[in-house]
Design brief:
Helix content is 42%, strand content 17%. The protein has helices spanning 10-14, 18-28, 42-48, 58-65, 80-88, 101-105, 120-130, 144-147, 150-154, and strands at 2-8, 31-38, 70-77, 114-116. Bound molecules: inosine-5'-diphosphate and magnesium ion (MG).
Length: 155
C-alpha cells in the first residue's frame, strides 16, 4: 500500500469543506492513517513548494497557505498516490473535471482547496515533512476485505 500526503488548504478550511473532503476519501475506501490541524510557516512552505520559489506567484501562494490553519492527512491505500491525485483534479480548479475535489468546489488556480502528493517518492518525503514519528498509524480497518480482494491486498 502507498501512503500519500493531503493538505486541506486554507481555501478548503475557510470554506467549511474539510468534512466533505475527508468524507470523499473515506467513502472511496482510502484509509485515513493520520490527521491533524497545523499552522504552516514560511520555512516549511519553502521546502514543500521548493519547485515554485522562483515563480512570480510564490509570495501570494505563501500568504495564502499561511492565512489560516490547514488540515494535513496521511491517506493510505493500494496505489493511493495516483488515486488521490485523480480525485483532486488538475491544478487550476476552473479546468478540473467535475467529480474531482477541485472541479466540484473551486474556481481558482491558487485557491484550489487541497494539496496531494504527485509521486510515491514525493509522498514519502511529504508525509515525513508534516508528520512526526508516531503520528501516522498502521491499522487495518475491519472493512478491508470489502474494499479489496485478497490478491489486491497481498500484491
Ligand atoms: P499541484 O498542487 O496541482 O501539484 P503545483 O504545480 O505543484 O500544482 O503547484 C502548487 C500550488 O501552487 C498549486 O496547487 C497552486 O495553489 C499554486 N499554483 C501553481 N501554479 C500557479 C499559478 O500559475 N498561479 C497561482 N498559483 C499557482
Ligand atoms: Mg504539486
Amino acid at each position: 500500500m502507498q501512503t500519500t500526503l493531503v493538505i486541506i488548504k486554507p481555501s478548503g478550511v475557510q470554506r467549511g469543506l474539510a468534512g466533505e473532503i475527508i468524507s470523499r476519501f473515506e467513502k472511496k475506501g482510502l484509509i485515513i492513517a493520520g490527521a491533524k490541524m497545523m499552522q504552516l510557516d514560511e520555512a516549511i512552505l519553502r521546502e514543500h513548494y521548493a519547485h515554485l520559489v522562483d515563480r512570480p506567484f510564490f509570495p501570494s501562494l505563501l500568504r495564502s497557505m499561511m492565512s489560516s490553519p490547514v488540515i494535513v492527512m496521511a491517506v493510505r491505500g493500494v496505489d493511493a498516490v495516483g488515486v488521490v491525485r485523480a480525485m483532486t483534479g488538475v491544478t487550476n480548479s476552473r479546468n478540473a473535471a467535475p467529480g474531482t475535489i477541485r472541479g466540484d468546489f473551486g474556481m481558482s488556480g491558487q485557491e484550489n482547496i487541497v494539496h496531494a502528493s504527485d509521486s510515491p517518492e514525493n509522498a514519502a518525503i511529504e508525509v515525513a515533512r508534516f508528520f512526526k514519528e508516531g503520528e501516522v498509524f498502521d491499522y487495518t480497518p475491519c472493512t478491508i476485505t470489502s474494499i479489496y480482494s485478497p490478491d489486491e491486498l497481498n500484491a
